[in-house]
Amino acid sequence: MTLEEGDDAPDVTATNQHGETVSPDFESPTVVYFYPRDDTPGCTVEAKQFNAELETYYDAGATVYGVSTDDVESHDAFAEKFDLEFDLLADPDGEIADAFGVEVENDFTARTTFVLADGDVQAVYSGVDPDGHAREVLSDMLDEKLVVLD
Predict the structure, then answer these.
(1) DSSP per position, 3-60
(2) What structural domains does the chain harbor?
(3) β-bridge mates for residue 68, sequence order
Protein backbone atom coordinates (compact mmCIF):
# COMPACT_ATOMS: atom_id res chain seq x y z
CA MET A 1 0.00 0.00 0.00
CA THR A 2 1.35 3.42 -0.98
CA LEU A 3 2.40 5.68 1.87
CA GLU A 4 -0.12 8.40 2.59
CA GLU A 5 0.02 11.93 3.93
CA GLY A 6 0.94 11.83 7.62
CA ASP A 7 2.78 8.50 7.44
CA ASP A 8 6.32 8.29 8.73
CA ALA A 9 8.98 8.70 6.06
CA PRO A 10 10.83 5.45 5.43
CA ASP A 11 14.52 5.08 6.18
CA VAL A 12 16.20 4.35 2.84
CA THR A 13 19.70 4.16 1.44
CA ALA A 14 20.63 3.78 -2.22
CA THR A 15 23.39 4.37 -4.71
CA ASN A 16 23.20 7.42 -6.96
CA GLN A 17 24.37 7.81 -10.55
CA HIS A 18 27.91 8.59 -9.34
CA GLY A 19 28.19 5.33 -7.37
CA GLU A 20 27.87 7.19 -4.06
CA THR A 21 25.76 5.88 -1.19
CA VAL A 22 22.93 8.28 -0.39
CA SER A 23 20.68 8.30 2.69
CA PRO A 24 18.15 11.11 2.18
CA ASP A 25 17.31 13.29 5.18
CA PHE A 26 13.54 13.42 5.27
CA GLU A 27 13.57 15.87 8.16
CA SER A 28 14.33 18.57 5.58
CA PRO A 29 11.89 19.30 2.73
CA THR A 30 12.47 16.61 0.11
CA VAL A 31 10.83 15.53 -3.13
CA VAL A 32 11.18 11.87 -4.11
CA TYR A 33 9.74 11.10 -7.50
CA PHE A 34 9.48 7.58 -8.88
CA TYR A 35 9.54 7.12 -12.63
CA PRO A 36 9.36 4.06 -14.90
CA ARG A 37 12.58 4.08 -16.95
CA ASP A 38 15.62 6.18 -17.83
CA ASP A 39 15.76 7.89 -21.21
CA THR A 40 12.15 7.27 -22.25
CA PRO A 41 9.99 10.15 -23.51
CA GLY A 42 7.86 10.88 -20.44
CA CYS A 43 10.65 10.20 -17.98
CA THR A 44 12.99 12.47 -19.90
CA VAL A 45 10.44 15.31 -19.89
CA GLU A 46 9.91 14.92 -16.15
CA ALA A 47 13.64 14.74 -15.33
CA LYS A 48 14.49 17.73 -17.51
CA GLN A 49 11.72 19.78 -15.92
CA PHE A 50 12.81 18.90 -12.37
CA ASN A 51 16.33 19.87 -13.41
CA ALA A 52 15.09 23.19 -14.85
CA GLU A 53 13.36 24.01 -11.54
CA LEU A 54 16.19 22.63 -9.38
CA GLU A 55 17.71 25.98 -8.41
CA THR A 56 14.33 27.18 -7.16
CA TYR A 57 13.88 23.97 -5.16
CA TYR A 58 17.36 24.45 -3.67
CA ASP A 59 16.74 28.15 -2.95
CA ALA A 60 13.61 27.11 -1.07
CA GLY A 61 15.59 24.57 0.98
CA ALA A 62 14.27 21.45 -0.74
CA THR A 63 16.15 18.48 -2.20
CA VAL A 64 15.00 16.41 -5.19
CA TYR A 65 15.63 12.72 -5.85
CA GLY A 66 14.53 10.63 -8.83
CA VAL A 67 14.10 6.88 -8.33
CA SER A 68 13.62 4.02 -10.78
CA THR A 69 14.56 0.37 -11.00
CA ASP A 70 17.35 1.21 -13.46
CA ASP A 71 20.90 0.48 -12.33
CA VAL A 72 23.69 2.94 -11.53
CA GLU A 73 25.17 2.75 -15.03
CA SER A 74 21.83 3.55 -16.66
CA HIS A 75 21.28 6.47 -14.28
CA ASP A 76 24.79 7.75 -14.99
CA ALA A 77 24.24 7.69 -18.77
CA PHE A 78 20.80 9.33 -18.40
CA ALA A 79 22.09 12.07 -16.09
CA GLU A 80 25.07 12.77 -18.31
CA LYS A 81 23.01 12.85 -21.51
CA PHE A 82 20.64 15.49 -20.12
CA ASP A 83 23.00 17.26 -17.66
CA LEU A 84 20.82 16.30 -14.69
CA GLU A 85 22.18 17.87 -11.51
CA PHE A 86 20.14 16.02 -8.88
CA ASP A 87 20.59 12.49 -7.55
CA LEU A 88 19.01 9.58 -9.38
CA LEU A 89 18.75 6.67 -6.95
CA ALA A 90 19.18 3.18 -8.33
CA ASP A 91 16.54 0.74 -7.06
CA PRO A 92 17.11 -2.40 -9.17
CA ASP A 93 15.61 -4.69 -6.52
CA GLY A 94 12.63 -2.43 -5.83
CA GLU A 95 13.54 -1.95 -2.16
CA ILE A 96 12.99 1.81 -2.13
CA ALA A 97 9.74 1.43 -4.07
CA ASP A 98 8.65 -1.19 -1.53
CA ALA A 99 9.50 1.12 1.39
CA PHE A 100 7.25 3.81 -0.14
CA GLY A 101 4.59 1.30 -1.20
CA VAL A 102 5.05 2.17 -4.89
CA GLU A 103 3.98 -0.51 -7.34
CA VAL A 104 6.65 -2.09 -9.55
CA GLU A 105 5.37 -4.10 -12.50
CA ASN A 106 7.70 -5.77 -15.01
CA ASP A 107 10.58 -3.73 -13.54
CA PHE A 108 8.76 -0.44 -14.23
CA THR A 109 8.06 1.78 -11.24
CA ALA A 110 4.66 3.48 -11.09
CA ARG A 111 4.97 7.23 -11.59
CA THR A 112 4.46 8.54 -8.05
CA THR A 113 5.86 11.56 -6.21
CA PHE A 114 6.24 12.15 -2.48
CA VAL A 115 6.91 15.37 -0.63
CA LEU A 116 8.50 14.73 2.75
CA ALA A 117 9.51 16.96 5.67
CA ASP A 118 9.83 16.68 9.43
CA GLY A 119 10.16 12.91 9.01
CA ASP A 120 6.67 12.59 7.56
CA VAL A 121 4.96 12.28 4.20
CA GLN A 122 3.48 15.71 3.46
CA ALA A 123 1.88 14.90 0.09
CA VAL A 124 1.55 12.11 -2.47
CA TYR A 125 0.99 12.53 -6.20
CA SER A 126 -0.12 9.36 -8.00
CA GLY A 127 -0.71 8.78 -11.70
CA VAL A 128 1.46 11.79 -12.47
CA ASP A 129 1.49 13.50 -15.88
CA PRO A 130 5.22 14.12 -16.30
CA ASP A 131 4.79 17.34 -18.30
CA GLY A 132 4.42 20.19 -15.80
CA HIS A 133 4.68 18.01 -12.71
CA ALA A 134 7.93 19.52 -11.39
CA ARG A 135 6.42 22.98 -11.49
CA GLU A 136 3.14 21.75 -9.92
CA VAL A 137 4.98 20.27 -6.92
CA LEU A 138 7.18 23.34 -6.56
CA SER A 139 4.18 25.65 -6.77
CA ASP A 140 2.36 23.67 -4.08
CA MET A 141 5.45 23.79 -1.86
CA LEU A 142 6.03 27.51 -2.37
CA ASP A 143 2.37 28.27 -1.70
CA GLU A 144 2.93 26.46 1.60
CA LYS A 145 0.19 24.00 0.75
CA LEU A 146 2.56 21.16 1.60
CA VAL A 147 5.51 22.22 3.74
CA VAL A 148 6.92 25.45 5.05
CA LEU A 149 10.09 26.21 3.13
CA ASP A 150 12.89 28.58 4.05
Answers:
(1) --TTSBPP---EE-TTS-EE---TTS-EEEEE-S-TTSHHHHHHHHHHHHHHHHHHHT
(2) 14-142 (3.40.30.10)
(3) 90
**pLDDT tens digits for 72-109?**
999 999 999 999 999 999 999 999 999 999 999 999 99
Catalytic residue numbers read 43
- C-alpha radius of gyration, the chain, whole number: 14
Measured between alpha carbons, how far is 137 from 147 in angstroms, rounded to an integer?
A: 11
What region does 83 belong to: left with phi over 0, alpha with psi -120 to 50, or beta? left
pTM (two decimals): 0.94
User: How far is 17 from 20, CA to CA, in rounded Å?
Assistant: 7
Residue 65, CA distances (Å) to 26, 29, 41, 88 in order: 11, 11, 19, 6
One-letter amino acid for residue 47 of the chain: A
Q: What separation in angstroms does the CA of 116 have from each of 32, 40, 73, 83, 107?
A: 8, 26, 27, 25, 25
Which pLDDT score, from 0 to 100, does residue 145 have? 58
Residues paired with residue 117 on neighbouring β-strands, in sequence order? 120
Residue 25 Cα distances to 12, 82, 103, angstroms: 9, 26, 23
